[in-house]
Amino acid sequence: MPIKCVGVPQKALYIFADHWLKNGNLKDIQIDFYNAGAVLFGVKEYVPALMEYIERYKVQLHLNSKLTKIDGSSKIAWFTVTDHDGKMSTTET
Q1: Who's near 92: CB < 8 A, 6+ residues apart?
Q2: Dihedral angle at the C-alpha atoms of 75, 84, 64, 10, nearest 10 degrees?
Q3: ∠ at Cα 93 (69, 25), nearest 5°?
Q4: pLDDT tens, position by position, 9-18
Q5: Cα distances (Å, whole numbers) of residue 84 to 8, 70, 81
Q6: Closest CA to 59 of 87, 18, 90
Q7: Short-list 61, 89, 88, 66, CA closest to 79
Q8: Sign for the pseudo-dihedral over CA of 36, 39, 6, 26
Q9: Which residues make Cβ contacts (< 8 Å) with residue 55, sequence separation at least 6?
Q10: pTM score
Q11: Are 31 and 61 in contact (CB under 8 A)?
Q12: Where do the DSSP E strands lie in the chain?
């Protein structure tokens, strides 16, 4: 596992989004959050509260999206996305 706590990327998301909101920059920023899992967070009791933040910060949530390739110099990332039927496709951002 590349990270020990799966909540850390979300924590960074919420901290930055709140900073941008308080400074008036959020309206000019599109936030996309990619998660390899099928749910936002593994503890279902926390999901409703977390979804309130996702909505407040207008985050585009991409579930079932596994990071497969990065081109740092071009600032491009590729994700393998699995739909509800198990069909896989590749998305470039």
Answers
A1: 76, 77, 78
A2: 110
A3: 125
A4: 999 999 999 9
A5: 26, 25, 10
A6: 18
A7: 66
A8: positive
A9: none
A10: 0.86
A11: no
A12: 32-34, 60-62, 65-71, 76-82, 88-92
